[in-house]
Specification:
Elements lengths: L3 E7 L10 H16 L8 E4 L6 H8 L6 E4 L6 H15 L4 E9 L16 H8 L7 H16 L3 H15 L14 H5 L3 E3 L2 E2 L8 E9 L10 E9 L18 H12 L8 E3 L5 H10 L8 H6 L16 H4 L6 H12 L17 E8 L3 E8 L7
Parallel strand pairs: 2-3, 2-4, 9-10
Antiparallel strand pairs: 1-7, 1-8, 4-7, 5-6, 8-11, 10-11
Helix pairs in contact: 1-2, 6-9
Length: 387
């Protein structure tokens, strides 16, 4: 039994939703069920995330009286892609027939990022030894990884800017994006205020209110849209998943073994991908993951981005929706939604914009979480086949 992504749904992305996360989540879940062509009560599996709606919340509010499988995935921003793996395993084992992956958050109006509960391990170490030195936000922690890479490979701010500008340009083709109608120039990028050296304002992802939902099913409904197959998905962790400060190699991340596993299992290669949705919490992490997944050579990710390769008309369009940098931050589940829409086709002249990757058959999606956890998936439409 193969696992298919049968439905996707989302709310508006905003700075202030004025709604509870429960309201947002139910709106996205109902939209995904309509998209899949199923009754929402047919959902019998749920994948949830820490500090979000629990499986019990979802079951109670949607009336899922037949819920028989649930799991919570705790890999930070890598959770959304890793969730595809758990959903697929549930489908293939027969534990469920329609699994809902749901992420809802008031990530902007619900409190600043440093005020939210953390799921990082070894909190006693962080609060006692790292936080007193001002090292308590994602920007501060990940900036050190970027600085290490700059020292080793000569990465420039203009190369980082190429990532930010590509995301913003793609957002101009997506009316749902928070940054739609707000173009960005290199001059504006370079003038952005400092956040955590070397990261400036436009190197950092958005904080967003909203929700995304994805339904993974055993089979597509006749009334539903074209199905998208989960060809393969894997997850990985760095050598020290609870400690960045003393890590032997700051640049070694969990995405590398996850991507290697997917390439080996499928017989596909980076060159077979028609687009990639790369978890873009910060500009450098796009470059970092492009290299870890094999899309660019080690030390060459900055030049790859600056060459225009990641633009819609480039050799590997990246984050055609605008990504976390310019569409919205739903923990990367919106990356999965965009990958599905690209593989279905039809983004060439709809109300969603003109951002279709012509003839897209395979799309890669990455996740980045916590202190370097990684997840990697390849999705395909009916024309895309593993070798």
């Amino acid at each position: 039994m193969s696992a298919l992504i049968s439905g996707v749904g989302e709310t508006d992305y905003s700075k202030k939703s004025g709604r509870t996360t429960t309201h947002l989540g139910m709106q996205a879940a109902l939209a995904a069920a309509r998209d899949a062509g199923i009754d929402v009560r047919d959902i019998d599996g749920v994948v949830s995330f820490p500090h979000s709606l629990s499986s019990e919340d979802v079951a109670a509010n949607l009336g899922l009286h037949a819920l028989r499988h649930s799991v919570t995935v705790a890999m930070g921003g890598a959770s959304s892609v890793a969730a595809l793996r758990h959903a697929r395993l549930a489908i293939e084992s027969g534990a469920a027939r329609h699994v809902l992956i749901l992420r809802a958050r008031n990530g902007c109006s619900g409190g600043r990022i440093h005020e939210r509960p953390s799921q990082l391990p070894a909190q006693h170490f962080r609060t006692q030894l790292e936080h007193p030195y001002g090292w308590n936000t994602a920007a501060q922690r990940y900036a050190m990884i970027c600085r290490r890479y700059m020292h080793d490979h000569g990465l420039t701010r203009e190369q980082l800017g190429a990532v930010a500008l590509a995301a913003r340009a793609h957002a101009q083709l997506n009316p749902r994006a928070m940054m739609y109608g707000r173009e960005l120039t290199m001059e504006q990028y370079l003038a952005g205020r400092m956040i955590a050296d070397p990261y400036h304002l436009f190197d950092c992802c958005l904080e967003t209110d909203g929700a995304c939902a994805v339904i993974v099913s055993a089979q597509a409904m006749p009334s539903g849209p074209p199905s998208v197959r989960i060809v393969a998905v894997a997850e990985g962790r760095p050598r020290t998943p609870d400690d960045l400060t003393n890590r032997p190699d700051l640049l070694a991340i969990g995405l590398a073994p996850a991507a290697a596993e997917v390439w080996e299992r499928t017989g596909l290669a980076p060159a077979d991908m028609d687009a990639a949705m790369i978890y873009d919490c910060f500009t450098f992490e796009v470059i970092h993951q492009l290299e870890a997944a094999g899309f660019a050579p080690e030390g060459g990710g900055g030049k790859f981005a600056a060459s225009g390769a990641i633009r819609l008309d480039g050799s590997l369009p990246v984050n055609t929706h605008g990504g976390l940098l310019s569409e919205g931050h739903l923990s990367g589940l919106n990356h999965v939604v965009e990958a599905v829409r690209q593989l279905r086709g039809g983004l060439g002249g709809t109300g969603l914009g003109i951002r279709q990757v012509e003839g897209a058959r395979h799309v890669a999606v990455t996740g980045w979480g916590d202190l370097g956890d990684g997840s990697f998936a390849v999705l395909a439409n009916e024309r895309g086949t593993a070798r």
